[in-house]
Structure formats: structure tokens, C-alpha cells
Amino acid sequence: MISIRLHPAAQREIRRAFDWYLQEAGQRIAAGFLDDFEQTLALLKNHPEIGEPGGSNTRRLIFQRYPYTVVYRLKDEALEIVATAHHSRQPEYWAGRL
């Protein structure tokens, strides 16, 4: 079975987004954000090639309900989450993480 690894910067992005939603929109919305992230990871774990191909051998999958995209790559029988990018961020800001 494929494993999932999160780049430390991607972990920080999830934490910051959760904190922002918690502060600005409340517990229910923040929890919904984490649920959406977990559902996205579950989908990727079962169908790792579902995301749209991107540069540097990455793929991208958009969250169902929140304006975020998971940027990932398949590496050594693992799915490596490179970034959890808000749609307002500069494209490819995460490229230095590869």
C-alpha cells in the first residue's frame, strides 16, 4: 500500500490554514477544511495518478470545497505532498522544495 509523506512546509501550510479558518470562520469551518484535506489524501492514496500533471514531475489535485490544491509527486512507493497551496498564492512558489 502506498504511504503518504508531507513536506514540513506543506504541514505548516495546513496548520496555518486551519488556524486561519478557526480564527476567522469558527470551529465548524476549520474542521471542514481538515475533513476536505483528509478526503483529498484518501482519494490520492487510492488513486495516486488522479491529479493533473504539473511541472517537475508533480501532480495537482484540487480540494472539493476549499480553495486549495495539493501538489504532490510519487517517489519511492510513496506519495510526497510538496505543498498545500491556496489558490491566491503565486503559482509554483513551492518549486524550491523539490
Mean pLDDT across residues:
94
Spans where pLDDT lies below 50 across 5 or more residues: none
Radius of gyration: 13 Å
> How many individual β-strands?
5
In total, the number of domains comes to 1
The outline comes out as globular
Q: What is the third-level CATH name, the topology?
A: YaeB-like fold
Query: How far from one another are the termini?
Result: 23 Å
CATH superfamily: RelE-like
Q: What topology, given as strand order, has the largest sheet?
A: 1-5-4-3-2
Structure description:
The structure is a single chain. The chain has helices at 8-25, 27-46, and strands spanning 3-6, 52-53, 59-62, 68-75, 78-86. The chain is α+β, with helices and mostly antiparallel strands and 98 residues long. The protein has one domain: YaeB-like fold, CATH 3.30.2310.20. The chain has a 5-stranded mixed beta sheet with strand order 1-5-4-3-2. The protein is globular, with a radius of gyration of 13 Å. The model has no long low-confidence stretch (mean pLDDT 94).
What's the SSE blueprint?
Elements: E1 3-6, H1 8-25, H2 27-46, E2 52-53, E3 59-62, E4 68-75, E5 78-86
Parallel strand pairs: 1-5
Antiparallel strand pairs: 2-3, 3-4, 4-5
Helix pairs in contact: 1-2
In short:
Helix content is 39%, strand content 28%. The protein has 2 helices and 5 strands; from the N terminus they run βααββββ. The longest helix is centred in the middle third of the chain and has 20 residues, at 27-46.
